[in-house]
Specification:
The longest helix has 32 residues. Helix 4 packs parallel to helix 14 and helix 11 packs across helix 12. The protein is built from 15 helices and 10 strands. It has 368 residues and is an alpha/beta fold. Strand 9, helix 13 and strand 10 form a beta-alpha-beta unit. Strands 3-10-9-8-7-6-5-4 form an 8-stranded parallel β-sheet. It has a two-stranded antiparallel ribbon with strand order 1-2. The protein has a single domain, classed as Alpha-Beta Barrel (TIM Barrel). Helices cover 44% and strands 11% of the residues. The relative contact order is 0.20. InterPro entries: Aldolase_TIM, Alpha-hydoxy_acid_DH_FMN, FMN-dep_DH, FMN_HAD. GO terms for molecular function: FMN binding; L-lactate dehydrogenase (NAD+) activity. This is L-lactate dehydrogenase (Cytochrome). It comes from Lentibacter algarum.
Length: 368
């Protein structure tokens, strides 16, 4: 079974679980603590019902959306994800090509496996650079300058990782970057020969954005020094759009808006950071209510279908970002698998729109 076997995100996950080493799958799939946060996120999304409408002409539908004044061919894009090349060799550039084809943003992670300059080139400009503030900020601001020089127009500051959350599944496997290969990992890789041989032929993934003189990145290094002064400095030095990702509090959202941030991304980091964090989809509605109808508000965390995308729009999102399900698809069927799942999500959303009397995502945002 490969790309042809993907008819839902769960299909992609099931195939990925079989193909990936346990260590890699649990790094991609795992959540914080006992993973009750992820379960609550899923339950909350499932609780949202859509309103079926009848006798409306929905024969002509569009999935196009508007994002910072530009038209995208889908109302969802690619969330920043670290070390995507673990799911499949060359995954970063597969995602970049997808972004270029559909004119959607590819969130390029600070810890991407491919240099940020190469990704935006392949994405034909359809890329946002996601930034972690780490240590004393020296390396952070070097990356901001690199992103500016590479032509990025949107910077996404991720603020919900002052310390890396404890994810027991990956800890049990001894997941570290760069890889430390011991007896347990050797057996794991030996039992997944397809992935291991591909990795051997293509070379093990690295954190490519830190292969520069005088700077080494430690994934576990504290990111706790970021403050409002950090944000203000970024606002002053970044001429393009500035988005803050990882917001789950109404008061914080209002503070960010007042500070001149161009957009907010409501997110729990896929429930990977704080197990007891509030449910993002519930906070999305509360933040929209307080921040106003016209302020750009984005969403990620737990999206598994096109209906989930539509649910997020009904709760106040202007745009939605897909995360680990795209890595499942990459692991299951490489680039063909990625495009197959993208088509599945698109079809699911289009059908859900027809069932609810909608012809465009703008039908929802226009009601605010």
């Amino acid at each position: 079974m490969s790309a042809s076997g993907i008819h839902s995100a769960e299909d992609a996950r099931r195939i990925a679980k079989r193909r990936l080493p346990w260590m890699v799958f649990d790094y991609i799939d795992g959540a914080a603590g006992r993973e009750t946060g992820a379960a609550r996120n899923r339950a909350a999304l499932d609780e949202i019902t859509l309103r079926p409408r009848i006798l409306r002409d929905v024969s002509s539908r569009s999935l196009a959306a508007t994002l910072f004044g530009a038209t995208t061919q889908r109302p969802f894009g690619i969330a920043p994800m670290g070390m995507c090349n673990l799911s499949a060799p060359g995954a970063d550039l597969m995602l970049a090509r997808l972004a270029a084809r559909y004119a959607v943003p590819h969130g390029v992670s600070t810890v991407a496996s491919t240099p940020l300059e190469k990704i935006i080139e392949v994405a034909e400009g359809h890329a946002w650079f996601q930034l972690y503030f780490t240590g004393d900020g020296t390396g952070t601001f070097k990356l901001v300058d690199r992103a500016k020089a590479a032509g990025y127009q949107t910077l996404v500051l991720t603020v919900d990782v002052p310390e890396v959350g404890r994810r027991p599944r990956e800890l049990r496997h001894g997941f570290k970057m760069p890889f430390k290969i011991g007896p347990k990992q050797f057996v794991d890789f030996a039992l997944h020969p397809r992935w291991s041989l591909n990795a051997l032929l293509k070379g093990k993934p690295t954190m490519a954005n830190f292969e520069m003189p005088g700077y080494e990145f430690d994934r576990t290094e504290s990111r706790a020094r970021a403050t409002c002064d950090t944000l203000n400095k970024l606002r002053e030095m970044w001429p393009g759009k500035l988005v803050v990702k990882g917001v789950l509090d109404v008061e914080d959202a209002l503070t960010l808006k007042a500070a001149g941030v161009d957009g907010i991304q409501v997110s729990s980091h896929g429930a990977r950071q704080l197990e007891s964090a509030p449910v993002p989809i519930e906070m999305l509605a509360k933040i929209r209510e307080q921040i106003g109808a016209d302020y750009p508000l984005f969403f990620d965390s737990g999206i598994r279908s096109g209906e989930d995308v539509l649910r997020a729009f009904t709760q106040g999102a202007d745009f939605v970002f897909l995360g680990r399900i795209l890595q499942y698809a990459l692991a299951a069927g490489h680039e063909r698998g990625l495009h197959k799942l993208w088509d599945v999500i698109s079809e699911e959303m289009s059908i859900a729109m027809a069932q609810t009397g909608l012809t465009s995502p703008k039908d929802i945002t226009g009601l605010r």
